[in-house]
Write a structure and sequence with these properties.
Rossmann fold, five-stranded parallel β-sheet, 9 helices, alpha/beta, 5 strands
């Protein structure tokens, strides 16, 4: 059993690195994007889509599906690469990323892309929408769960904390927020911009159950997701500690890769590193 779990975790790592490579190719081809956050969130997205979410790419609007909302909508490259890998999109459609008339906008659009639950991009919107979805499930007695992936810099938006209060008030233990805690936002480290720490204590003070995990360890992520709800009657917060630009040595923990586009040479070097991790 343990050997099988390790093998499954390794397969998730390889899939996440493949998604990283796809998203970098997309950003390079488009000449615009947010590769740092794409790479930091790839493991989280992989575990959700291939081990946690109850979803069906052949029936993306099934009423009993779990809902996933990418609140950090600027990291659409990683989401689209994940959706294609999961069978929601043809891989060739990724080549149209951010092109005129493409469905794959810089920010995801639920009216154009199967598997997208909410239009996001303006930060601080995903958790309020997710709170409403989770409340609707509670009120109707539905068994599906809602998951929201936020950036850490995004938590400087006050709308998140209004939603956090409401979610705790209504006891939405069917709601899980995952914080991509890579420590950076657009211009600098989060702690030099508007300090977030002690972040776990803040969530607990708002009435949430909290767990901190290594956001690049599929086994740790999967273990946390399998124990939901963390506490009955409380919404769940998983703080996933990650690295901006994870998987590419010259991108890791470098703020400029929030939205820098790799050159031809940088893309080739990055893909070589990622290909080595797939072995």
């Amino acid at each position: 059993m343990q050997d099988g779990f390790v093998e499954f975790s390794d397969s998730l790592r390889r899939k996440a690195n493949s998604i990283r490579g796809l998203s970098l190719r997309m950003v390079h081809r488009a000449g615009v994007g947010h590769p740092g956050g794409d790479l930091s969130s790839a493991d989280i997205l992989t575990v959700l889509y291939f081990a946690v979410l109850r979803i069906d790419p052949l029936n993306p609007s099934a009423s009993d599906r779990d809902r996933f909302i990418l609140s950090k909508g600027h990291c659409s490259g990683a989401l689209y690469a994940t959706l294609a890998t999961a069978g929601f999109l043809p891989f060739e459609e990724l080549d149209t990323y951010m092109q005129p008339l493409s469905s794959l906008n810089g920010h995801p659009d639920r009216n154009k892309v199967p598997g997208v639950e909410a239009n996001t991009g303006p930060l601080g919107h995903g958790l309020p929408v997710g709170t409403g979805a989770a409340l609707a499930a509670k009120m109707s007695g539905a068994g599906w769960r809602t998951y929201v992936l936020t950036g850490d810099g995004e938590l400087q938006e006050g709308s998140n904390w209004e939603a956090a209060m409401a979610a705790a008030h209504y006891g939405l233990d069917n709601l899980t927020v995952i914080v991509d805690r890579n420590g950076f936002q657009q211009g600098d480290a989060t702690e030099r911009t508007v300090r977030l720490e002690p972040l776990a204590d803040k969530w607990r003070a708002f009435g949430w159950a909290v767990e901190e995990v290594d956001g690049h360890d599929p086994a740790a992520l999967l273990s946390a997701f399998r124990r939901l709800p963390l506490e009955a009657g409380k919404p769940n917060c998983i703080i996933a500690h990650t690295h901006k630009g994870k998987g590419v040595s010259f991108m890791e923990d470098r703020v400029e890769w929030h939205h820098r586009v790799p050159s031809d040479e940088e893309l080739e070097a990055a893909l070589r590193e990622l290909d080595g991790r797939l072995a």
